[in-house]
């Protein structure tokens, strides 16, 4: 991400659809239920439209603003490339509005940073340089407000930031490992943290430790609120682990 300083909160092929069954009329009007079914991209897009409409009606609707930013991050990671920039920029703006509405809440800062990170990952060095400082500032703000937010998501994202940013601009593999390990103190089963830690360990030529982290991804239980993301990280871990099998003598 610079990859997506995150979660590529960084970041991925679509997993199997969530087991979810409700009446269509209810689903069509409830953005939270629609978003829960986000592996159906049309469902995620409908949720985003509903939150956007709420925000248009009431510019002080903090919940609609940050949830729109979160939805744009997911949608941007699953649409055609030609549509990605619009979704991420929409998410940045929604996150910025949420942060302005509730400057002592972490949600707006985090999802603004996630969308900025996705832009940095997807659209080259210029975007990376443009957002590098803003991503770090937003994530450090989340840490000041609530370091446990979303099971250590800010530390997880900063771990990616420190890995992907060149050392000349503040990157550090040691700090990447430090933040990723700290994120695991909030959720020892985080598939994202274990996967990102594995990638950092590989960058430092610690292949055996990286294999352990990737196996942790595969062994982790699926979180009920993050099932699509967990399934994607499991698929990525499975593929990466296959490339790291010890060679036969």
Write up what this structure looks like.
The longest helix has 22 residues, at 124-145. The chain is globular. 69% of the residues lie in helices and 0% in strands. α5 (81-101) runs antiparallel to α6 and α7 packs antiparallel against α8 (153-164). It contains twelve helices and no strands. The chain has one domain: Tetratricopeptide repeat domain (Serine Threonine Protein Phosphatase 5, Tetratricopeptide repeat), CATH 1.25.40.10. The relative contact order is 0.12.
Quickly describe the structure.
The protein has helices spanning 24-29, 31-36, 41-57, 62-76, 81-101, 107-122, 124-145, 153-164, 173-186, 191-203, 207-219, 227-242.
The structure class reads mainly alpha
Write down the Rg: 18 Å
Number of helices: 12
CATH architecture descriptor: Alpha Horseshoe
Order of helices and strands: HHHHHHHHHHHH
What's the overall geometry? globular
What is the residue-mean pLDDT, rounded to a whole number? 88
Percent strand equals: under 5%
- Write the CATH fold name: Serine Threonine Protein Phosphatase 5, Tetratricopeptide repeat
The separation of the N and C termini measures 36 Å
Classify the helix fraction into a percent range: 55-70%
According to CATH, what is the class? Mainly Alpha
Number of β-strand runs: 0
Largest sheet: none
Low-confidence stretches: 1-26
